[in-house]
Amino acid sequence: MTYAPNPTTFNPIVWDIVRQVTHGHVSTYGQIASMLPQPADVDAQDFKRLAPMRVGDALNAVSFSDADGQAEPTDIPWWRIINSKGGISLPAGSRVAMLQKQRLEAEGVTFNAQGLTDLNRFGWLGPDADWLVAHGFLAPKPIRKPDDTSPQQLSLF
DNA sequence: CGTTTGACTACGC
DNA sequence: CGCGTAGCCAAAC
Asked: Does the CB of A124 sit below 7 A from strand B?
């Protein structure tokens, strides 16, 4: 079966998780999606590819009014969610894209010349374990590359 | 109301 | 390792 979540119930769940992302850190669409319980009757492949897009949809509903300045500042840090490459996925040069970068930089997140952040430095490690259990979400997939580049271990021998 | 497009990601060249 | 594509559903036109 395909994965077609109802935005009415799906979006608030996403927002709930996004609220946990800490100041000065970034998460990815895929990481947020990885915390969502997967319905048993849904094809795993579909879920893997579609859930991140739905996360983007959920955030789109929030950032639009925010960037236009027509609404009260949201308590949902939508700007801390970027793509798996470490870049901003909003249309380059758009008003909302610049706002996102501006807010991240204000939090100390830096971008290289290619417009990418270093996920190994700024990547979110996930919510508190207690919060995770209390809300019934899965442990997020790590977005920091496993820095198994630890030659000191090998040099012991 | 049919088409097009996309805040994605995994995978294959 | 970078680039293009497949896959799928909802929004946006």
From this structure: no
Task: Answer yes or no: is A27 CB < 7 A from strand B.
Answer: no
| DSSP string of chain A, one letter each residue | ------HHHHHHHHHHHHTTSPTT-BEEHHHHHHTSPPPTTS-HHHHHHHHHHHHHHHHHHHHHHHHHT-SPPPSS-GGGEE-TTSB--SPTT-HHHHHHHHHHHHTT----TTSB--HHHHB---S-HHHHHHHTPPPPPP-S------HHHHTT-
Mean pLDDT for chain A?
88
pTM for the complete prediction?
Answer: 0.90
